[in-house]
Amino acid sequence: MQKDIKRLSLILLFMPFALWIVVLIALPHVGMVILSLQEKIAPRVYQYSLHNYIEFVNEPIYWNTLLRTGSISLLVTVLALLIGFPVAYYIAKIAGFRTRNGLFLLCLIPLWVSDLIRAFGWILLLRETGIVSGLLQWTGILGSPMEFLYNDAAVIVGLVYTVILFMIVPLVSTIDGMDNSMIEAGYNLGGNGFTVLRKIIIPYAMPGIVAGCIVVFMLTAGSYLTPILLGGKNSSWFTEQIYDQFITRYNWESGAAFGFLLLAFTSLVVWLGLKLSGQSLSSTVAKS
Amino acid sequence: MRISTMLAGSLATVLIATIPAQAETLRLMTWGSYAPENIIKLFEEKYPGIEVAVTFSNNEEMIAKLRATGGAGYDLAQPSHDRIYAAQLEYDIYKPMDLSKINTAAMEPSLLAGVKANTTMDGKVYAVPHQWGTSGLMVDKTKAPDLKGWGDLCDPKYKGKTSMRLKRTILLGTAFAMGEDPFAAYADLSKYQEILDKVAVKLIACKDNLKAYWKGGDDLSAMMLSGEIVASETWDSTAYRIFGQNQNVVFVPPSTGALAWIDTFALPRKGKADDAAYKWINFVLQPEIVTMMSASSGAIVAVKGGKDLLPADKKAAVNAAFTDADIANLKFFANIPPGVEDMEGKTLEKIKAATSN
């Protein structure tokens, strides 16, 4: 009896998670795989083939866009880490207990505003007749209005701003767990600031760094609004490509194939990253 | 005891709420400004049994949504006239209309005939016209007085000061500007591909001249009103709206003819409230509603004398833009045959991915 209740509660507790995985993740993906393997040969007539994947390989525009998306996402990840690490370290180790909560809250505030509004915020700041350009003219640094919007730099700035929180949170929680005496011991044994950072703090924070990088990279590569709104004439983004296939070209089959290629590509990059840094998913994401 | 009565009570309310009462819902999928609050309110006052639920969308999304459900989820949709035939042929998402239930006598005969010709399959009509408008150029006449044709957007005189939307409209406009007739070439897709290739070369060379590709009416308005650009490819309604704020910005029908679209009414195949849909169609064709509709959408309703029923400010903008010769020169979007979207999509990708410098 007792055992049955225990088992029942286990099943019930597990249910929401299992349903979520099966109904919302696994099933749609199975449908997408089937869709991606279809080729339209006439109206309302389809046959199974690898056509959509072959099309991707044969068209340089597609894989160039994917590589571009991947490399910009990596750059965004690195920038988010470089900016996020000092912030996280300050919050976890240097700030007092009370300021800490306040600072953490401040980091969260941008998340209360929708993606769209945040992107429009950047548009107001960066456009030719916008605030930054106006300010620089007012101070005399610029002689005439200058366009900061519609280029890759604007996209990168916007993306870093959107995702940096997902870097800071795991970093704070790992660095927070580190005993201060470890740092003191490092200094006592003659290390300078740089060696302490390199030999003690970074290795300790590695799970958080890797977890943050994975989340940030995945979010960036899969983002849609920011690159579309801030990007310029040449800024193609792979998710835009998927949207176009599905919506403007009515080509669900190749849209589904592109979706899978994006998933495979990002998974490959994450796997490579883990291999190169000598980490594994269980030692990083599961831990932080 | 208390609890059980409360439970019974709340159960009863739940039941009442789920049983469809007299109220019928008309699920309308339409464009951003085609179902303004004031018209919905008047409609619901006239037909107290019908509740209108509106979803705002655009051509591509309408078809994608209906395709996903096989035509269920909505009772009335408003795709453009060139988006009915191929979508119906490929995905079977609409059902034929019963014209006897529609006040077709009120409609502008030429537009009705045009839409019927475009959307008749196996002798059945799948759409009737609602509003029409054009795509053309928007020009600040104080800064670019001699900008007249699609190709002038690529004039180095206006380098960095023009914009366009990287969609099929500009492909077609540029083709006309180069002396081709893309709509005639729909019948021969290899000929159309040749035209598209030429257009792509032209637009890639033009890329350097543009400030940015606009993506929606809002960013186009912002660029134009701030003076960051002096001319752009545009929908006429966006130009009219800006004309209301800056009288120097006018809509210019390109010398090769403005491209005209007609947004229609079409019934999704699994729609459940056809009668309510017909009531809505007839309701919005009434003269006093037509004026309110045009005030909201900036487009001309396809009723007899629709241009005269425009609100005063829109009428001024239209008269500033169109002469009778321009109207006679309109190029109505031709039915998109299956496969053309893919060809155009590839061309657009090629242009977007190319670097001009």
What does this structure look like?
The complex is a heterodimer of chains A (288) and B (357). Chain A has helices at residues 2-36, 51-58, 60-94, 97-108, 115-126, 131-138, 152-176, 180-188, 193-221, 225-230, 238-248, 252-277, 281-284; strands at residues 38-42, 45-48. By secondary structure, chain A is mainly alpha-helical. Chain A has one domain (60-284): MetI-like fold, CATH 1.10.3720.10. Chain A has a two-stranded antiparallel sheet with strand order 1-2. In chain A, strand 1 (38-42) and strand 2 (45-48) form a beta hairpin. The radius of gyration of chain A is 23 Å and the shape is globular. Chain A starts with a helix and ends with a helix. With 357 residues, chain B is an alpha/beta fold. Chain B folds into two domains: 2-132 and 261-305, Periplasmic binding protein-like II (D-Maltodextrin-Binding Protein, domain 2, 3-Layer(aba) Sandwich), CATH 3.40.190; 134-259 and 332-353, D-Maltodextrin-Binding Protein, domain 2 (3-Layer(aba) Sandwich), CATH 3.40.190.10. In chain B, strands 7, 8, 9, 10, 11, 12, 14 and 15 form an eight-stranded mixed beta sheet that branches. In chain B, strand 1, helix 2 and strand 2 (50-56) form a beta-alpha-beta unit. In chain B, helix 8 runs parallel beside helix 15 (340-353). The longest helix of chain B is centred in the middle third of the chain and has 18 residues, at 189-206. Chain B is globular. The chains are: A mainly alpha (288), B alpha/beta (357). At the A-B interface, helix 3 and helix 11 of A face helix 3, helix 4, strand 9 and helix 15 of B.
- Assign the CATH class of chain A: Mainly Alpha
Mean pLDDT of chain B: 89
Major sheet of chain A: size, sense and barrel closure?
2 strands, antiparallel
CATH class of the largest domain in chain B equals Alpha Beta
CATH topology of chain A: MetI-like fold
Question: How many helical stretches of chain A?
Answer: 13
Largest interface: A-B, 28 and 34 residues
Rounded to the nearest angstrom, the distance between the terminal CA atoms of chain A is: 37 Å
Q: Uncertain segments of chain A of ≥5 residues (pLDDT<50)?
A: none
Count of separate structural domains of chain B: 2
At CATH level 3, the topology of the largest domain in chain B is D-Maltodextrin-Binding Protein, domain 2
- How helix-rich are the residues of chain B, as a percent range? 40-55%
Question: Regions of chain B with pLDDT < 50 over 5+ consecutive residues?
Answer: 1-21
- Widest β-sheet, arrangement of strands of chain A: 1-2
Q: Give the rounded overall mean pLDDT of chain A.
A: 89
